[in-house]
Amino acid sequence: MSASLVTVDACLACRGRDLRAHAPSHRTGFVILHCRSCGLHFLRDRLSLESVVNDYDLDFDGYAAFTDITRPDVIDSSHATVLERIDRLVGATPRRSLFDIGAGDGGFLSMARDAGFEPHGNELSSGAIAMAQQRHGIELLKGDLSTLDAGEHDAVTLWCVLAHVPDGDVLLDDVKRVLKPGGLMFLQTPRWSRMDGLGMAAHDATRGRATRLTDRRMAMHHMSLHTEDSMRITLERLGWEVVAIEPRVRYSLTTSSYLQSLGVSPTWADRASRPVNALVDSGRFFRNVLDVYARKPG
């Protein structure tokens, strides 16, 4: 196994060892572990933090290519909904401060600034940092949170960050470090859904040959997929006060680009995207993410 990978042998959520190892993917060689106790699914062999930091340092064009396949309407709507709830939960305090981890192009921080928060954040991508400054006048710190003097804030947000790191405990402890006592954390993270269960059934039935969906959902960009139980267990074990853990239908990438990543031709991906979009927009598709709100004890 490459030196850039680290291997785990216990559940990253509940720390249990009642694990099922699924057949290695014939395409990638990755092994997915399933915790029978809390439901977490995660890669057995994971990128080291150093590799993650290096891999996500995209230049401007590289980051722009990623933003080109996103759905801005979905992103803006979810940002507004979450920010409204954060605003209520934090309350009216002088000089409210919000830190966004992995802040991307700064769109959420710009919205938070308009809502009366002092905007702060970090990014691994040089291109994202430049884009945040160019588009929104937002200045971001560069580097992993563990290396930064980020101060203390009333709220910390993580939009699809937890699944990208090799050790979620380390990240969540770093979040606690930059929160004021009683401060609020919001995170969105990919959820193990019925869609993933169907993909894993095909994976298992073919002994790792029919893995298009599992390879897409469980890869180095999604090293862990949580359930409600595994998320709650993780937070409570680390001393967080859980406010809410809620499954949501939220697909931020265009359906056509996602289907093409599964091997569907561009023509058929465009045709299939119309009915899928209708289901997604109505909220009747697979609930693919968790919205999580928790407090640092005061």
Report on this model:
- This protein is of the alpha/beta class.
- The chain has helices at residues 49-55, 60-67, 72-90, 107-114, 126-136, 168-177, 194-205, 212-217, 228-237, 255-261, 266-282, and strands at residues 5-7, 19-21, 32-35, 41-43, 45-47, 97-101, 118-123, 141-142, 153-159, 179-190, 224-225, 241-248, 289-295.
- The protein folds into two domains: 1-47 and 193-216, N-terminal domain of TfIIb (Single Sheet); 48-191 and 226-295, Vaccinia Virus protein VP39 (Rossmann fold), CATH 3.40.50.
- A seven-stranded mixed sheet has the order 8-7-6-9-10-13-12, with helices on both faces. A four-stranded antiparallel sheet has the order 2-3-4-11, with no helix packed on it. The chain has a two-stranded antiparallel ribbon with strand order 1-5.
- Strand 7 (118-123), helix 5 (126-136) and strand 8 (141-142) form a beta-alpha-beta unit.
- The chain is globular, with a radius of gyration of 19 Å.
The CATH homologous superfamily of the largest domain is termed Vaccinia Virus protein VP39
Q: Indicate the percent of residues in helices.
A: 25-40%
Strand order of the largest sheet: 8-7-6-9-10-13-12
Shape designation? globular
Q: Could you say which structural class the secondary elements and strand pairing correspond to?
A: alpha/beta
